[in-house]
Design goal:
This protein has about 325 residues and is α/β, with parallel strands linked by helices. It has twelve helices and nine strands. Helix content is about 40%, strand content about 10%. The strands form two sheets. It has a five-stranded mixed β-sheet with strand order 5-6-8-7-9. Helix 2 links the parallel strand 2 and strand 3.
């Protein structure tokens, strides 16, 4: 890769997750551009809540967000419009295409910021499959990327050889222990989140939901982008809900009032969702309407007491009736 260097004017871009590692990597290289990807699989709450606490340490630079990454990410997993895995050998134990996703995001960053340093917060051997040395080198063979936290264990990049990045300032962190990272965060005055599960695609239970959701949504007569948009809202609800699956439909239940309200606001004109309301429970139905009565019986048998009209949770039934199509 040929790098066009013009003094110190080369942009330094960090792929920003909002976590401790990407905060530290940004500090090490003195990043001037923070680049994030939005999908309900990742969530943005952590990114913005902790960025608000730390942005003064980075001269209040903004975070630039790709807000439509969901479709592209799903394309790394499934063949178009089918439930066939595109790259089975690259998928983790659930539905997580971590290595493919990292490679894809780095490529997008290169296209978005030409002739720039592209860096990530990856740490060698922090994750056994996607961040082992072979995985990191495989990606580096396809597209140039700087890993400031583990760079001393990895081959030099052209940015280091050209002097744009001072290799002596880069770190030699390796493994799953976060002692070095937490020590640096305290030294640099960074407020950081506790380690979390990260991407929902790594969770086997959630992956099972996704397969069902994708199957049902693909049976709907809608353009692909509409399916993806709907899927985002379904997944948002599913993070806080339980679900029951039928042959060609599913029901979300045990949702808190605020989650119902959130889904309602973004789907006001969407006929995909139907409200199931029984004497014992309440839920959202998605899929083949021929299965609606069966779904109602399923919900009725749940006997989820805290969902009965959920007044104490702030659920506005009258509002839901106006938003969702109610089938008697």
């Amino acid at each position: 890769m040929k790098l066009l260097v013009e003094g110190s004017s080369v942009r330094k871009v960090i792929l920003f997750s909002g976590g401790l590692d990407s905060l530290l990597a940004a500090k090490v290289i003195e990043a001037d551009t923070f680049f994030a990807f939005y999908t309900p699989f990742f969530g943005m709450e952590k990114i913005f809540s902790y960025w608000a606490k730390n942005r003064d340490k980075f001269e209040n630079k903004p975070v630039l967000v790709i807000d439509d990454y969901t479709d592209e990410l799903l394309g790394l997993i499934f063949e178009d419009e089918a439930m066939v895995l595109r790259n089975p050998t690259e998928i983790g134990k659930a539905l997580n295409p971590c290595k493919l996703c990292h490679l894809n995001m780095i490529r997008i960053a290169h296209k978005s910021f030409k002739n720039s340093v592209i860096a990530t917060g990856e740490v060698l051997d922090e994750r056994p499959l996607s961040q082992n040395k072979r995985a990191l080198l495989d990606i580096a063979d396809k597209v140039e990327v700087l890993r400031p936290l583990s760079a001393r264990f990895l081959p030099e990049t052209s940015w280091e050889r050209s002097g744009v990045i001072n290799r002596k300032r880069l770190l030699a962190i390796r493994g799953r222990s976060r002692k070095v990272q937490t020590k640096l965060a305290k030294e640099w005055g960074l407020d950081y989140p506790a380690p979390s599960g990260g991407c929902l695609l790594t969770e086997e239970g959630f992956a099972d939901k996704l397969i069902i959701f994708w199957k049902v949504l693909n049976n709907q007569a809608a353009r692909r982008i509409e399916k993806v948009r709907r899927l985002q809202h379904v997944l948002y609800a599913a993070k806080f809900a339980r679900f029951a699956a039928l042959a060609n439909s599913f029901v979300l239940y045990q949702l808190k009032g605020k989650v119902f309200e959130k889904v309602a606001r973004v789907l006001v004109d969407d006929k995909l969702f139907h409200l199931i309301e029984t004497a014992r429970s309440i839920g959202l139905f998605v899929g083949d309407i021929a299965e609606f009565d069966k779904a109602r019986r399923v919900v009725d048998k749940l006997r989820i007491g805290n969902c009965v009209f959920s007044k104490i949770r702030g659920l506005n039934i009258d509002k839901l009736h106006k938003v969702f199509k109610v089938i008697d």
